[in-house]
Prior knowledge:
Layout: E1 4-8, H1 15-23, E2 40-45, H2 49-58, E3 62-64, E4 67-72, H3 87-95, E5 99-105, H4 121-151, H5 156-173, E6 202-207, H6 218-226, E7 233-237, H7 239-247, H8 251-260, H9 267-278, E8 281-287, E9 291-298, H10 303-310, H11 312-316, E10 318-324, H12 326-332, H13 335-340, E11 345-347, E12 358-363
Parallel strand pairs: 1-4, 1-5, 3-9, 5-6, 6-7
Antiparallel strand pairs: 2-4, 8-9, 10-11, 10-12
Helix pairs in contact: 1-7, 4-5
Amino acid sequence: MGLKCGIVGLPNVGKSTLFNCLSNAGALAANYPFATIEPNIGVVNVPDDRLGQLAKLVNPKKIIPTTVEIVDIAGLVAGASKGEGLGNQFLGNIRDTDAIVHVVRCFEDGNVVHVNGDVDPVRDKEIIDIELQLKDLESVEKKIQKYQKMSKGNDKEAKKGLEVLAVYKEHLEAGKSARTAPVEEEEQRFIHDLQLLTVKPILYVCNVDEDSVVDGNEHTKALKEAVKDENAGVLVISAAMEADIAQLETFEERQEFLEMMGLTEPGINKLITACYKLLELITYFTAGEKEVRAWTITEGTKAPGAAGVIHTDFEKGFIRAEVIKLADYISLGSEKAVKEAGKMNVEGKEYIVEDGDVMHFRFNV
């Protein structure tokens, strides 16, 4: 679907180290600001044990997971909204993403320079927030000027737009992000074309030292308290530890390392899964001898739309969908057994696909 999560944060907080662990794309990770100038893009497989379970039953020639694009965006600094530190370029890169992963430094290390001299995750978060909010305020004010001209001609839509935009303007001026503005969903149409930066869903990633990866530390507690009203996710990860895990050659070595650290899975897996959920995505599967494959759709997608992800002809000529619940497939062991048990449902155009559905589409073009 081409959906992207953008990794943002101040310089030297661990963004590129995390990106390298995610994508093995080799982004430069250096101990100085702006080690990343152009945005690095990695296509990352979404971890999903269900795909492997299904493949064991079908024994296909290929197994194809679903993916999310991760964009490593260069470090922002105070004044970015006015062009400081190549700010306009960086903010433009954020605008092209669908969700934001905000990496915040929550570890002490005298050997790693902090752009502001000391570690204060709440202050660092607010620096980024202010720059994004200022850029959004600029966009909202420009559209207000446009609607003010239109409203002089008794344009009712423009007048309504002015009312809604005034709410966003007041909210942003108060130092709050657009995603928390008290605006009804239907009224949000007035800002869709603006691609506001602070309306995007956000996940805060606390980058900690290895000793804090299980229970966090005072820095992570402070950040969680600061974002408690934002309806945002918070994840605790040690980028340095994830880099060590990525260098281990075998699955067994990685599992042994995780157990030693008191963890059940790499933080990177949690991050990818969190990005997927942040974008309100779900997965359905197709299963056959040629391939078992995971497909990405947004929550609430109806069967024809889900079919269109495979090919537009599937959506145009949609007749019906044959649906098997994954739990039934696994418990009964094969598609044949599912059919014999009467567990395959035939669904029409109004069926809303659920996470984990195993689908087969009938179409005619």
